[in-house]
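Input record (one chain):
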Amino acid sequence: MSQLSHFDQQGASRMVDVGSKAVTDRMARASGRIRMAVSTLERVRDRSLEKGDVLSVARLAAIMGAKQTATLIPLCHPLALDRVEIDFQFPDDQTIEVWATVGVSARTGVEMEALAAVSVAALTIYDMCKSIDREMVVEMIRLEEKAGGRSGHFIRSTS
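The corresponding structure, as predicted from the sequence alone:
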């Protein structure tokens, strides 16, 4: 268990001590998808849902989710984030891709904040559209890139 940083030698969970680590610039990018009916995505894009502008609300929810990650994930360190950027793309007529980029100067990384932002955005889209489409699927939430810190730069391979 000692190889997993959130467990001590006896297997008990713990918050990792980052006090001796250097403050460095850190960045993480994550992505995810939500698939839905063609007619649902049309209504999202033309802003005709009764609950309002789905993507604007999802963007704000994602930013709030990134900022609240430490209250949602028990062993995450609370971080004063420097930036959170949310982008939506439409790879086809049934899919919204959510991208989050999070940056901070800190002793620990922001992968969980980027993943939380994507998750909250997708769940917000689901919540706002569920009255017309209960078959939506949230999928493929994953880390795409991280930079900064001792473990170096990671970029997901395209294969």
